[in-house]
Design a protein that fits this description.
It is built from eight helices and eight strands, in the order ααβαβααββαββααββ. It is of the alpha/beta class and about 220 residues long. A hairpin with a 2-residue loop joins strand 5 and strand 6. Helix 3 packs parallel to helix 5. The chain is globular and about 45 Å long.
């Protein structure tokens, strides 16, 4: 059954390469939850979820949590859902903020809200992981930045602007689940390119409202 489960993706996602991965998702909100679900579906064997937050009613529409998940830690609710997709998945939950001392996997998916937090995570992990991807979103605009080789690792810090330079939209116009799903899909697409040893785009920006996509390479 295991081989049959992944039979339709075997030419796209190298099975042995993915079996060598432990994926860490930092931030299990709109994008992070979708990333965790997609990683589970494509067959990552070990998944680590890091988040300190609990599910609020506003998260049901914007992040795809279930009504039964209200007030539960997001890591627990997401881990439970992922295990329903694949009962062989090994899941580790960390109900806390990311700390420099937090052990992580060799592939990291950053799905947090603030630039300061991104800076903190990058400084802690930049020399410690094989694959690093950062998903950002505001309303219907998304950005996916990947660092997995020397050039892209040199480029990534240039994207860490100051908080004052961040887009300040209304809190009711920051999150749409369809944009989060698309952002997660782009993050997974970069991950599977990495697994296939293909060139990975360092910076992808998509404006869904304007139907625009910009791809920047180092």
């Amino acid at each position: 059954m295991s081989s049959e489960r992944y039979s339709r993706q075997e030419d796209i996602i190298p099975r042995q390469r993915i079996l060598d991965c432990k994926a860490t998702v930092i931030g299990v909100g709109a994008i992070g939850r979708q990333v965790a679900i997609q990683l589970t579906a494509i067959g990552v064997p070990v998944l680590q979820l890091i988040d300190f937050d609990t599910v609020e009613i506003s998260n049901l529409a914007s992040q795809g949590f279930m009504h039964k998940d209200l007030k539960r830690p997001k890591v627990d609710a997401t881990a439970e859902f992922c295990c329903e997709i694949n009962d062989c998945l090994q899941v580790e939950v960390v109900l806390d903020r990311f700390k420099r001392t937090t052990p992580v996997g060799n592939c990291v998916f950053v799905c947090v809200d603030s630039i300061d937090t991104r800076k903190h995570i990058w400084q802690a992990l930049k020399d410690k992981v094989n694959f690093y991807v950062d998903g950002r979103m505001s309303a219907e605009v998304l950005r996916v930045i990947t660092a997995c080789d020397q050039q892209s690792r040199e480029y990534y810090p240039q994207t860490l602007f100051t908080p004052a330079e961040a887009h300040a939209g209304a809190c009711t116009a920051k999150t749409t689940i369809y944009c989060a799903n698309i952002a997660a899909g782009f993050m997974l697409a970069q991950f599977t390119k990495y697994l296939r040893l293909l060139p990975v785009e360092s910076d992808i920006q998509v404006n869904l409202l304007a139907s625009e996509i910009n791809v920047g390479e180092c």
